[in-house]
Amino acid sequence: MVYFLEEPIQDGGHLEARLDIHEEPEGVRICVPLLPPGCSEKQSAEIQRGFLDEILDNHAGSDIVFWYYTPMALRFSAHREPDLCVYDCMDELSAFRGAPPELIDLERQLFDLADLVFTGGQSLYEAKRARHPSVHAFPSSIDKAHFGQARKVGLPEPPDQQALPRPRIGFFGVVDERMDTGLVDRIAELRPDWQIVMLGPVVKIDPATLPRKANLHWLGSKSYGELPGYLAGWNAGFMPFALNEATRFISPTKTPEFLAAGVPVVSTAIRDVQKPYGTLGLVEIARTGEEFVQALERVMHRAPQEWRKAVDRHLADMSWDQSWAAMALLMRTRLLAGAPASLATTTPTTDRKGAAHV
User: Fold this and answer.
1) What pLDDT score was predicted for residue 351?
2) 106: domain range?
3) Which residue has the higher pLDDT, 11 or 119?
4) What CATH number has the domain bearing residue 202?
5) Is 146 exposed, middle or buried, given 0-12, 13-18 or 19+ CB atoms closer than 10 A?
């Protein structure tokens, strides 16, 4: 049984804390702690500690694996000792805006506790490998079948996009301090005949600071299932990441997702995009608004057949199933003959980002 512990939510409708649990079709139990209003961080940790103890006590005698996506989960879990501890390090979280002051110390503790450390990209692996004896790089993989739907002819257009003229240049993902909004503004300014489509929630930055132009469309959050429909209507994609501390070690999952959708893409010089995607000619790299415009024009006007063949060759051996199989092998090896049976049967359904697994 897999329990996925989400971040807590303060619930103004209830004075008593409770744990909302619902089971996904794949069998994963999603657990959302609902806290009363005005809960302090200390109280929040104590409540979550109690919820965790209740889950574990209900499975006394079973093999227990703790899978951490954030060291902050140690606030409520450090008192329990699992049979195996995995730290799945997806980002350099301490570099993000608003990162808690204790994050660095908690990560140091997690490195001491972890049996295995997985990193979400090569550059992050290089930054972390000296801190633990068993660090392994697992760059972002891809659900090819899902994003490949965007290549189908006649896929229905989403209502809020269908009236936009072409060409359309698109981005999907979180809009936060990692985005170079000035670059987005400059591209829209240089090519007012292009429609720039931006999908995703605005987080940690003031929406009022986003650039506004007639050809720049902020369409908000979309579900995972809706994304292929949007990508199918784009002539090209772009990844306008700022080059700062928050993006120094990122390995954008959307890179192979754009490619699986058959959408040519231009990115800023993010290290894990440059290599391998840039060096293989699968993604164009640009820095200024002018360079982006030139690169986007190139990729929109080239014959797509040879590029897509190269893309498909590169993606052929990539899948979340294969990533999980390699991870599970490392976990079974670490546990020797005592590996829980769940390690051989549980498979992630989309990607690895989230809160914490128990």
Assistant:
1) 53
2) 3-141+319-357
3) 119
4) 3.40.50.2000
5) middle
